[in-house]
Amino acid sequence: MLFWNILIPVAPALFVVGTGLWRNVCPMASTVLLPRHLGLSKRKKLSITQLGKLNLVAVLALYAIVPLRHAVFNNNGHATALLIISLTVIGLITGFFYEWKSAWCSGLCPVHPVEKLYGSNVWGSLPNAHCDQCRNCVIPCPDSTPNIHPEAATKTIYHKISGLLITGGLPGFIWGWFHVPDELMLSTSANFFGTYALPLTGFAITICVYVFLSMLAPVAYERKIISLFAAAAVSCYYWYRIPSLLGFGKFGTDGMLVNLSNTLPAWSITAITLACTAFFFYWLVVRKPNNKSWVIRPQFEK
After folding, report:
1. Which of 149, 189, 220, 297 is deepest in the core (most CB within 10 A)?
2. Where are the alpha helices (DSSP H) in 66-188?
3. What is the pLDDT of residue 266?
4. Secondary structure class of 151 (helix, strand, coil)
């Protein structure tokens, strides 16, 4: 309940307004960086190609894990704990070998692709809570590159594919995800794989639209198209998530935090979701980029 219905619903809005705050306080990141803080890391640097491969794996992991919420994690606290522990162990292993945030926070973490998509026009830059000096462990550094977005690093085919998959596919994936109910008992393989059908269908539709628009529009409009799809994705998320949190969801108690269906009128929920949609499209699409990075880059290592 705490993880899926409080922390996770807050995260997308936080990524849009202040990604740097999350990057500073993320519990998993703080744990993964312990080997580096304690001087136990071998501090290896990843090549551009290696980092591109990790970014692609992160996107694929996101699309593989999220549908499993309906199948397993939303109704099984032990499974959720095992998921978090497993990801933390993987992150810790990378922390023992690679420099700072390169392998996990800016590489393998399944949340990172969403950070880059939503965090392209943050409110302002915050001090860096982890890096005391910049070692150029990631180029470009997502934390300290102004207005970073998924297409900002297209040095390899892996970067290009991961940028395409997260930008074009996420809006439809989110739409499809919210049309799948939680499964209390996975009695057949059809139930299990059915959790992927609608999300991947929506993913395929919007990625085709994204490719079409990208081919049709001049290069100068690339950033605007990315912002449009980012706004569509986060708006779609809250369009369905806010009603479900407050007891107005499509599938009864699925994803419910508190039941206000007998307290609030239905029109108030519509008004809230419309206001959220207007805000995200203003913030990401209409609002002029302010040339701010997530955090302030520290001095370069001498």
Report:
1. 149
2. 68-71, 77-97, 112-118, 157-177
3. 93
4. coil
Provide φ and ψ at 183, rounded to 5°: -100, 115
Tell me the CB-side half-sphere exposure of residue 208, using CA atoms within 13 A.
6
State which amino acid sits at residue 281.
Answer: F
What residues have CB less than 8 Å from 274, skipping those under 6 apart?
none
pLDDT < 70: residue spans in the chain = 153-154, 184-188
Reading the block at residue 238, the tokens are: 């809250």
| Count of C-beta atoms within a 10 Å radius of residue 2 | 10
The confidence score (pLDDT) of residue 100 equals 86
Give pLDDT, residue 34. Answer: 92
Global pTM reads 0.94
pLDDT at 187: 63
166: burial class by Cβ within 10 Å (0-12, 13-18, 19+)? buried
C-alpha torsion 27→32→37→42, nearest 10? -170
Contacts of 205 (CB under 8 A, 6+ apart): 172
**Which 3 state secondary structure label does DSSP give 155?**
coil
For residue 170, the model assigns a pLDDT of 98
Cβ pair 180, 67 in contact under 8 A: yes
Decide if 200 contacts 176 (C-beta within 8 A). Answer: yes
CA–CA gap between residue 187 and residue 133 (Å, rounded): 53
Q: Whole-angstrom Cα distance, residue 30 to residue 100?
A: 11
Residue 65, helix vs strand vs coil: helix
Task: Tell me whether residue 242 is exposed, middle or buried, using C-beta atoms within 10 angstroms of its C-beta: 0 to 12, 13 to 18, 19 or more.
Answer: middle
Place of tokens 């609030």: 264
Vertex 92 angle, CA 111 and 5, to 5°: 35
Q: Residues for the chain: how many in total? A: 302
Residue 252 backbone zone (phi > 0: left; psi -120 to 50: alpha; other: beta): left
What is the maximum span of the chain, computed from C-alpha positions, in angstroms?
A: 62
Q: Can you read off the two tokens belonging to residue 122?
A: 């943050």
- What integer pLDDT is reported at residue 194 of this predicted model? 84
